[in-house]
């Protein structure tokens, strides 16, 4: 190959968006210990009655990982993926701005998504147990999905988590676990999750337990 052309091709490749397919980068929002912990929660609750739910499943990155873990461990349960699939809702942003001292520019992410893209991601990864639900958790009655053995709530903001936790807890089977992501009071962006988690644990009369820096644990004993 002409050396000048080879140099030019290399320069184009290094600056193109396709570069990430040649030099893979870590894309999970969870660290490996956090992901291992979520897998352990699924393993520990596999014989508990009920399905699994991920509230705020986004583009399906964690959904794929956890479902591949379930496949490998032969854990067969229904798995609900619930999201607006269009990002944070305006009422939640308004709440953060009016009551929690945030600016609306903080919450513009996750809009580039669609339920059909999430479903296609599951199809391409040969995951068939997922039931995706397009809903705003402020308006969707989570108790209608039936009993749960494990739930991960990952919607970041105070208002939807405050509303969702009592509903998730109501349908959580005894022995089940709920994990609330972003329970980090030093995170000035997503600290609404931490506030909602701590208020809920106080209402239950339980001690808070936050692991790996941000995973709030709720266990239902009876
Ligand atoms: C951090 S992302 C989820 C990431 C995903 N769990 C993962 O690990 O790949 C947060 C998601 O919460 C969703 N979300 C935010 N507010 C919501 C609401 N009120 N109802 C439903 N989904 C919401 C957003 O659309 C976004 O996809």
Short description:
This protein has 222 residues and is an alpha/beta fold. The protein has helices at 3-14, 19-22, 32-44, 61-72, 90-99, 115-124, 158-171, 191-204; strands at 51-55, 79-83, 130-134, 148-153, 172-180, 210-211, 215-219. The chain is built from eight helices and seven strands.
Describe the structure.
The chain has one domain (29-219): Vaccinia Virus protein VP39 (Rossmann fold, 3-Layer(aba) Sandwich), CATH 3.40.50. The relative contact order is 0.15. The protein is built from 8 helices and 7 strands, in the order H-H-H-E-H-E-H-H-E-E-H-E-H-E-E. The longest helix is centred in the last third of the chain and has 14 residues, at 158-171. It is 40% helix and 17% strand. It is of the alpha/beta class and 222 residues long. It has a 7-stranded mixed β-sheet, sandwiched between helices. The radius of gyration is 19 Å and the shape is globular. It binds S-adenosylmethionine. S-adenosylmethionine is lined by residues 29, 54, 56-58, 61-62, 83-84, 87-89, 92, 110, 136-138, 154-156, 160. S-adenosylmethionine (SAM) binds at residues 29, 54, 56-58, 61-62, 83-84, 87-89, 92, 110, 136-138, 154-156, 160.
